[in-house]
Amino acid sequence: MAQIPRSTELCAGVPPVRSTRLRARLAAALLAAAVLAGCSTAHYPVNPRLDRIDTDRGYRANRVLASEPDDTFILHLSFSGGGTRAAAFGFGVLEALRDTPIVWQARPQRLIDQIDFLMGVSGGSILAAAYALNGVDGMAAFESNFLKAPLQQGLTARMLSPRGLWRIQSPRFGRGDLLAEFLDEQLFKGATFGDLGRVPRKPFLVIHASDMFNGARFEFVQDQFDFLCSDLDGVPLARAVAASSAVPMVLSPITLWNHVPPDGGPGCGEPSLRKLAAQAAPTAGRGRAPQHLAELESFRAHGAAGLLRPHVHLLDGGLSDNVGARGPMEFVSHFDSIVEGTRFAGYRGVRRAVFIVVNAETSARAAEDRLPDVPGPLRTALALADIPINRNSATALAHQRALLETWRAEVGAAHARGDFEVYARDTRFHLIEVSLADLPDPALREQLMAVPTSLQLPAEQVDALRREAAAALRRSLAFQRMLRELEASE
Length: 490
Prior knowledge:
The protein has 490 residues and is an alpha/beta fold. Helix content is 44%, strand content 14%. The chain is globular and about 70 Å long. The model is unreliable at 1-18 (pLDDT under 50).
């Protein structure tokens, strides 16, 4: 199927005009008429079709993880949502990891080089995608091109320009699509997931949004796109980031096309996760595996009229998981235990499994609670997103803490059976949480938690968030304990 053009600039039937003044007047008249008549035919880019599922191709975890088969240090890093506040806070953690030297397997290294999985949502997805694309060498450019660039002004100007206003009148183009284009020009320069997977290397990037139909996590990984018979390699990173950042009422959803045959035919073939679920059938009742698979199978469901979901609309990823805690849970839920899940991922002899959660959520306290006035419609609408995000994040983090103890016990049981193939005798698990809420200075904590969720912040706020994030990581008792154990193990 041919790609639909990104936009169509004019309605049909407009004759050429040579006079500059007349042309300007005619353009203004055409704009007003177009806005009123809704004649815009702008169209978002359509995600490409996948002809055949091939687990040896595409942006898949197994291909990226296989790039370092002897890796015995698993580091999973996740960035929460929260606009530029979250990106700046996460950036400070990256800087601290970059500046933390370690000795691992008798070689001097940096902790940042150990990152295997990098998860991001909303504002955190912008940082995660940029780092996965450009690595440590691109951090300085990210600071200048995003953290300290006047992006909010630029995006607002684009939305309110005659061309922007004209384009968003189209039923096939919205404010979320404008954000995707803007971020692509400012930051990603046309990069797609195919660029990430062309030469597989860690970290493996997972950007997730929320399915507007059922609120499920929707991950921009090829294993999920298999269910749509769509080739993720042709999807721009900027569209994934825009989908993850599509705050309801503020930005429009990002739409994907489902290329599964409407007649129920085989199409691109059987998704790999469906096969995996069949292999794990004896223990399929555990955890979230059945629910997760059912959510994915909804993309292939048919009715009397054909495909039930020929299109998928995606909203802010924070609505389903704002701290990236559910990703590891859902992956492991497809297996009997963390041991089998890690075995499937290709790891052997793992000695360290570290999970760092960077949480830039702000206080749930509303300024309106200090006033007797009835909150306005905008604040009320935003609360519809903020409330479930904060509550879901707290639940997810509590679940991850409990699950870590379960995983320790499962590894211990494997060791008791004499199984040291996947996890070595000296295996250690670490969960490190870095949160704005944990800053020790009450005044500074209140100040930084009051930073708004926006696309642009003053440079002094960006620097304060970076500085305090790095300090919070180094101050973390769990982080200090991990470093001590690393030093003692060598």
